[in-house]
Amino acid sequence: MTVCEIREQRFQRMGCFEIGVLWLLVTIIRIDAATSAGGIQAECLGNMVQFTLPSSLRAGRPLEVYLVNNTRTVLLTPQLAAQCGYTQKSDPSGNMIVSASLKSCFAENKGDQDFKVTIKVKFYDLSEKVLEAVKSCSHTMVSREILCGTNFMEVSVRNAIPEVKKAPAKEWPTVIPNLQLSTIILYTPEEKSFDRETLQGMGYYVYSSPTRLVMRSPYTMAETFVEHVDDVDMMVFKSVVLFKDRWMIAMVESAAACPTNGASVLDQKISWRFPLHLTPLVSSEVQILDVRMGVDGKRLTPEEMSSRNYGMIFTESHVVVEIPIGAPGGYYKSHALENEYHISYTIEPMLELMWIEGLDKTVYKVLFPITTPLNPSPPQITDNTQPQKKVFDVLLGYFLPDVVLLNITFGTELLTVSEVIINGISLQKHSFPNGTKAFTLQVPFSKPYVQVKNLRPDRRTYFLPLVFGFIIMPEHASFSYSAVLEASIDNIAIPNAGGSCDQDVFNIYVKYGSTPRSQLKIKLGQVELTDEVLQQYEHHSNKTHFDIVVPFLAPLVALESVDLTGVLGRIDVELYDALNNLHVRDFSLACTFFVKMSECFSNGTITMVLPKLESISHLLPGKLSLRDPDCKPFYNEDHFASFRFDVTTCGTTRKFVGDTMIYENEVTWMEDDSLLPTSKLTPESEYRFTVSCVYSTNSTQTMMFNAVSNFKEPETDAGNGELTVSLKLSQDMVYKFFHHDGDYPVLKFLKQPLYFEVGMDSTSDSKVSVGLENCWATLTKDRESKPKWDLIVDGCPNPKDPHQTIIHPVTEDDTVDIPDHVKRFEVNTFSLREDDGSSKHEDSTVARRVFIHCDVVICHAENTADGRCYKQCAENQIRSTSNRVHRSASFSEEDLQHVSIGPILLI
Length: 907
Prior knowledge:
Helix content is 5%, strand content 48%. By secondary structure, the protein is mainly β. The longest helix is centred in the first third of the chain and has 16 residues, at 16-31. Residues 1-34, 678-683, 701-720, 835-846 and 878-889 have low confidence and may be disordered.
């Protein structure tokens, strides 16, 4: 495409010759190619020169720019730059660009055609290196040149000094006028007069040579004004300069008008509208010779414009430059707005116009930086996590190069980038060909910052809250981005519960599955199993499962029904994931326990235990009574009541059936209806339980005996054998009736003492004696288990027990032939209500399931001097006329026999 082909049709009459002149001029200027001085690149751009300090040379070091001419060196400040025709800027890549008008204050000017511009760059680091760059440019100026820089307006016009013809030799000699700049009139738009020194002191620049007048004004000066030109606001700087001699006055007009708006953004495209008829600069119709576009002060060929998708459209009144957002020649910049990430696109297009008015040509150049509105650009997280690897793997992007990752907050712990890496977390930065960058982060699930939750029983979900902290360089603006990473693993092992019943207990187990024991709550009944509760029951645990033994009369058990043969009990198990606030599983186990809830004794005494049933949860056991309302429980707690009465009392009835007598009574409870509204009355408001005892009226008791001859003393033959002992629980305090193996578990009450007997089995040898070494109680069959309650220690009652065991004397009667073969002791059940054997909690109402164990020694009954077998206990420790109580200090394990009995349910 030729230069002529880019003209609009309305300019066909201009002719290619004139445009070709301009193109030739441009070509001549471009022949002076970019040069380099110490790494600083320099280039002539028409009526400007541009210095570029690459980011590789700068390396982030602080620096200062100095302006240099033959006489002085001055630091470049923003105020000086606007007054003297310089601009200084940096792009996000770190490149620094200094541009200068060829008519700047410090440029060396030779005949208004050859110019030399010099700058120095000083680095402030340990080296304090100084680089100097010099650039010489040639430029042929037309009648008027107007330059709209980014921070100043400049106009250069030819001086109007009249041409003086040489007079004939015989006439008066020619007087060449010596015009001096006298007065400057500024239009604001009112007229204001200034002298040169005053005006330059205000921040303007005035330069006058025999051929040119240069006026320069920063945009911020008070004497400039705005004029609306074809919907575009133009900042106008207008002046008249008076030159005087004694007999002559010359007047030079100058004006500059630069756009302050006209750019808009629509559909990812920048449109810049510029008026073709600049009324502040022209007074009549002008002929436009050429229109050119460029970027950063550099003209572009039509081919370059096409490759960048730039466009230039002409209308009746405007030229419209179209630039796609993101096109080459511009750059993106990061911003932080209200703690969010935004980006903008900045480009500095250049528009050059040449027109002719009369015989005078004007070259108009405007550099017009355009920055798009801030556009939110929230970071994006690409989740590449493979849950089976148990590592969060994410990519966070995309950011411009001026964004720096400063720190990451994991949960509540903030770590700098270096600390992240030290903590074994992979963090990497990735750069892409389009100039953006992203970060990859890999965090193992095992890190303490990662939260674990089970939102579903069969799925484990890992959460990691993150906050990324960023800063934007070089302004150090900060913003953050928050995200929560989430990954789930399916088919995990769900906690499970089960159990079985055995005699008088529930055996419950819980398998943890994939849930850590620390976060799994276990509820039995309505009670959560805390450490305090667990101390009251036999239990075991390891890394995989937990099991517990619960007596069927424990408060954790719901009793559904009770009759004369047994109790139907149920225990409910609930598993709950405390960390994830998730109900995991329910389990219920119901069993019938065949335990005597009542006993009929031959002396006419009846005892029974009545537990509270689940169906009558509001029943108060202490309010129960027999048929005689005055016959209340002799002992009760909040979950049971116990009765003891004689068959001839409390309204007990008797009837005969055949050869038997049947005694009956009834335990009743009736809720006070007056205290309940009618709507609350239910069938469960009444409670009845019938107890019966059957006695035979026609039975014979027999007794066998052997007679012994008085004529001969009995003799025994020496022999070898093993003597054994047994431990029994008496049904009464006189040791007449004992519980048999099939009776266990045996129900007893906390107010009811326990009577034990240790006896020697199957021997009539009066020369041997049985002695108690130690006796104690445990909650399990294991005699070594904890907790442990000491009852007898070293043959004497435990002195640390406030409810001391009583050792009863044994005398010969119809049940005992040889007293030395038997030892009897009484245990106060309150001694068994402590948690660990060292502290008492007598207010506890937790049912105990206890086993009694004794170490027994067999001694020679006639060798009372044997200190190994006998010792004297304190008088308050034993109720016995005999002082033959064994001592264990010298007994070995081989000397002892071990006996146990149980379980005994204490309620």
